[in-house]
Amino acid sequence: MPELRKDPVTGRWVIIATDRARRPSDFSREPVPPPSSRFCPFDYGNEQKTPPEIMAYRHDGNANGPGWSVRVVPNKFPVLGIEGDLNRQGDGMFDRMNGIGAHEVIIETPDHDKTFAVMSELEIERVLSAFRERILDLKRDVRLRYILVFKNQGAAAGATLEHPHSQLIALPVVPDFVREEIEGARRHFDAKERCVFCDIIRQELADERRVVQENADIVALAPYAPRLPFETWLLPRRHGARFEEAPRYEYESLARLLKSTLMRIDRALESPPYNLIIHSAPFTDAGTELYHWHVEILPKLARTAGFEWGTGFYINPTSPEEGTRVLRAVKI
Ligand SMILES: [Zn+2]
Ligand SMILES: [Zn+2]
Ligand SMILES: [Zn+2]
């Protein structure tokens, strides 16, 4: 019998359709094309083919030349631009403003074929530090309200270049999904005077059925009401509203757990495409006691169809308990 489950943060319902249960190998996926030998603007020696770098961690060489380990450049085709005023105005029912923001690309490694699952923990930690540095810098711009850091792994997840990279988009508004989480967290806080994410972590660690892996600082778990098969969240045990304010040891622990979680997902599901996002409190939000930063990994195993778009209900054929069993059984 299918089961409806409600996400304790957002209140969003999902349908866990376990009678349509599928083995990991039953998901149809776009085959991952073999690495091509085509020209890649993110490789060593091609630095002049990207816009000039905003920052880089380098062990050698000069700006916009080889010798870097992580490199951040503006997106060549930005969704939003940094020049100008917001100029917010209304036209009767309709609000508009100038597309002020920033759109940056974090090139995670010079190595064309390395994924997070293959990179060393230190390399991943360096990427996380680059995210932090860019957020702290962009936060000084008073026009901006939110920064989303995300990664599209694989063409089916929206990646247009195969070279390992993440993106950062700074926005003059707080995105809906984040606002939903904050509003849900506020409802919980008003009722219980506790952070909803801290409560989830406590309950999940006691229950264990949905805990994929944990270490001293971070817990990787399948949410109770996942939208997608094998959806996995990584949360710091210590309460903190903002990713960029986390202490260094949490980045170390996050890098370790990200690597092993993604290794599990890659091995169990044959390196599926996925999106990875970081959710953190908006700059302006004073309610730092009620929000809790986290990472969401969203494997792209099934397609979002009309029913999902039309209702906001997701149909998930894999229960989080079954997904957790599969991921935990992987030898890494
Ligand atoms: Zn490349
Ligand atoms: Zn918390
Ligand atoms: Zn979230």
Explain what this protein looks like in three dimensions.
By secondary structure, the protein is of the alpha+beta class. Helices cover 26% and strands 22% of the residues. The chain has six helices and 15 strands. It has helices spanning 121-138, 176-192, 196-207, 248-269, 306-311, 320-329, and strands at residues 3-6, 13-16, 55-58, 68-74, 89-91, 94-96, 102-107, 146-153, 165-171, 211-214, 218-221, 232-236, 274-279, 294-299, 314-316. It has a ten-stranded antiparallel beta sheet, sandwiched between helices. A hairpin with a 3-residue loop joins β10 and β11. It is globular, with a radius of gyration of 20 Å. It starts with a strand and ends with a helix. The mean pLDDT is 91. The structure holds zinc ion (3 copies). Residues 195, 197-198, 239, 292 line the site of one zinc ion. The site of one zinc ion has 4 residues, from β14.
Hetero groups? zinc ion
Which regions have little confidence, pLDDT < 50, spanning 5+ residues?
none
Q: What's the story with the biggest beta sheet?
A: 10 strands, antiparallel
Separate helix tally = 6
Total beta strand runs: 15
Structural class: alpha+beta
Q: Distance between the terminal alpha carbons, to the nearest Å? A: 34 Å
How helical, in percent, are the residues?
A: 25-40%
Beta-strand percent range? 15-25%
Radius of gyration: 20 Å
Net shape: globular
Write out key terms for the chains shown.
22% strand; 332 residues; alpha+beta; binds zinc ion; globular; 3-stranded mixed sheet; 26% helix; 15 strands; 10-stranded antiparallel sheet
